[in-house]
Amino acid sequence: MSDPFSSSALKVEQPRRGPFGKSRYKVLDGDDTLLAIAAPTADGGRAEAMRGILPGKSNLDARAVRLTTPDGDPLLTVDKQRGRDYTEILGVKDEVVGSFVTERVGRRYVIYDGDGTLLGAVDVDVPRTNFAVTDNDGTKVAHVRKRWAGLATHLLTTADKYAVEIYDPVPQPLRTMAVMTAIVMDMNLHESKEIT
For the region Disordered, what residue ranges are annotated (predicted)? Predict the structure, then answer.
């Protein structure tokens, strides 16, 4: 299977569906061609969905999304553990492709491959809208930017849009991890829409 994320310019978007649209994403290339869709791996039902809109909801709950091609072929799973400390990226056979480990909550995450070897880091700006992905030498290999969609969209829906720019060539698995940064950072930092 060829790499569906081979484009150096990608978009990651959540549907505008109110509080029930959490943990659903579309991955598109620069020409808006749909490359992948992501949906929760388990359906917690209406009670679980309602917890997302009640006061006190945070991004600390464990959850996972499975990415598939538009035809339904499995690609990857983003498995966010409870809290904000650890998120794994799993391959088609549930093998660990890599992980994001919190170094400073909301500010810096380190990236490891499936064997636990350090690959690089994600540095986050203060408003949590720009994510610089670097390799072990500190060279920037990708930039992920959360686009502002307006106050009403931000407060009343889960719709978030990210632009992902990869500075090719980037070796695997760091390239895959750079592409997944948008979904991982959204699940860790932006899914809760409360004003805090």
Answer: 1-23
Neighbours of 8 (CB within 10 A): 16
Q: What is the 8-class DSSP label of residue 191?
A: S
Count of domains observed in the chain: 1
d(CA 48, CA 157): 17
Domain that holds residue 85: 9-190
Q: Is residue 195 part of a domain?
A: no
Is residue 4 a part of any domain in this protein?
A: no
Q: Using the 8-state DSSP alphabet, how is residue 7 labeled? A: -
Q: Is the pTM of this model over 0.90?
A: no
Residue 81 belongs to a domain: yes
Residue 154 is which amino acid? H
Cα dist from 82 to 33, 108, 134, 188, whole Å = 33, 18, 25, 10
In a domain, 143, yes or no: yes
